[in-house]
């Protein structure tokens, strides 16, 4: 209805509980069954009481005629964590009135007319008396009993405390994980003689997240003996699932410091869980006493290197290029070995001295700068240390490229010592006492 003679309601405000003001929670509204022009929104009025919250619905577009009998409906939706208000009892805040009573004000265009009213949530009428009982039906034919078991196998990435080289699932990786887990789970259901299967395990892009991949299915869990057999079948698959989630190698440098977890998340029908991390033996590298913790310097070596033709050393040489990046200042791990604006003094690799003659030098390219040919340099005999001096600042290092020139037929995998097929690279900020030398693994 109109608020007074000549006054037309343009917006409505409801007093609501501040507990409804949750990130991700949403409200929609319809006026006479049509979505409002502007969606409702929560607000904390600057001139209202401390802690007060309102729900605003603007641009109602009513006039004295259309306001008569107009019906305004709101729909409450929580966020993905099921937080937020979903009922009028939770939403409305009207001290002194029964739960579910909403206090609302309507405003005209000039916001100088705002009558306030209370609306009590309608209570359903008492149910009608039950009809007389019908005659007993004839017994139905016997059908097998069914207990729905909806199970999701989750592959999760658990990052290290200092996540300086973040790794996340992408769409292609998620699809591959879901495809392999689906095939194995459906085979396990068949091997356990479980039927019917309401929804076989199958890939679904909507259950792909950057740190979690869910692969889901729905089957009959009425027969406990068959469920026990399924439990044994799937338990034997967990190591395979970890391999699938880690692209076949839990010690892949991209997963350095990570834990890969496979779990059905305490599912009542099938509760299994297993995790794995990579633990490699310590290497005698670098050959000095310094702080090797990742993150104590802002300089990062990419977990992947790549080959390319050499621009300086000829066709008989292949260059293996390591990309460098930097951390924001807030992400640097506090230490005594780093001072703000320290340079990237050098990089060292744990390398086989027997292949000293195969290393022809380096091509170094600071970000935004020209490439430069540098001759090879090795540490003292017996230290297995290949090194190159850089003296780059943060701008030069972030996106900089250091390429090791190796004579064919040798490769970087032949040259590097340590984990099979991988290289240990250490970055330094200086060469004297109390310096940082974080170590990174990299692979092709």
TrEMBL record:
Region annotation Disordered: where it falls in the sequence: 122-141
Biased composition (Pro residues): 123-141
Ranges for domain Pherophorin: 11-115, 285-438
InterPro entries tied to this protein: Pherophorin
SUPFAM superfamilies xref list: Formin homology 2 domain (FH2 domain)
The protein's name in its UniProt record: Pherophorin domain-containing protein
Annotated source species: Volvox reticuliferus
């Amino acid at each position: 209805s109109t608020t007074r003679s000549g006054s037309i309601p343009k917006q409505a405000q409801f007093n609501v509980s501040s507990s409804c003001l949750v990130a991700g929670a949403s409200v929609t509204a319809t006026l006479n069954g049509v979505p409002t022009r502007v969606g409702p929104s929560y607000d904390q009025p600057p001139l209202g009481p401390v802690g007060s919250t309102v729900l605003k619905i603007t641009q109602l577009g009513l006039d004295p005629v259309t306001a008569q009998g107009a019906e305004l409906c709101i729909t409450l939706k929580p966020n993905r964590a099921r937080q937020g208000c979903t009922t009028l009892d939770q939403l409305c805040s009207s001290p002194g009135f029964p739960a579910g009573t909403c206090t609302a004000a309507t405003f005209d265009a000039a916001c100088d007319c705002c009558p306030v009213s209370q609306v009590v949530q309608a209570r359903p009428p008492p149910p009608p008396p039950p009809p007389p009982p019908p005659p007993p039906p004839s017994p139905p034919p016997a059908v097998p009993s069914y207990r729905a078991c909806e199970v999701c196998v989750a592959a999760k990435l658990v990052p290290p405390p200092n996540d300086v080289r973040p790794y996340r699932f992408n769409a292609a990786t998620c699809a591959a994980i879901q495809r392999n887990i689906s095939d194995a789970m459906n085979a396990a259901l068949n091997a356990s003689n479980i039927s019917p299967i309401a929804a076989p395990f199958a890939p679904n892009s909507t259950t792909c997240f950057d740190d979690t991949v869910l692969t889901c299915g729905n089957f009959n869990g009425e027969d406990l003996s068959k469920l026990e057999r399924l439990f044994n079948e799937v338990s034997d698959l967990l190591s395979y699932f970890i391999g699938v989630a880690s692209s076949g190698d839990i010690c892949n440098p991209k997963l350095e410091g990570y834990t890969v977890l496979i779990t059905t998340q305490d599912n009542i029908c099938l509760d299994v869980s297993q995790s794995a991390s990579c633990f490699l033996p310590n290497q005698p590298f670098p050959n000095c006493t310094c702080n090797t913790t990742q993150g104590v310097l802002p300089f990062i070596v990419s977990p992947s290197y790549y080959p390319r033709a050499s621009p300086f050393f000829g066709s008989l040489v292949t260059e293996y290029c390591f990309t460098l990046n930097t951390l924001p200042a807030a992400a640097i791990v506090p230490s005594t070995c780093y001072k703000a604006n320290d340079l990237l003094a050098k990089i060292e690799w744990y390398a086989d001295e027997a292949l000293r003659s195969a290393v022809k030098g380096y091509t170094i390219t600071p970000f935004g700068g020209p490439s430069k040919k540098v001759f090879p340099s090795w540490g003292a005999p017996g230290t297995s240390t290949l090194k190159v001096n850089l003296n780059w600042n943060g701008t030069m290092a972030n996106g900089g490229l250091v390429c090791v020139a190796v004579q064919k037929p040798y490769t970087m995998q032949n040259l590097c010592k340590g984990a099979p097929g991988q290289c240990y690279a250490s970055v330094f900020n200086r060469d004297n006492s109390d310096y940082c030398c974080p170590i990174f693994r990299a692979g092709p």
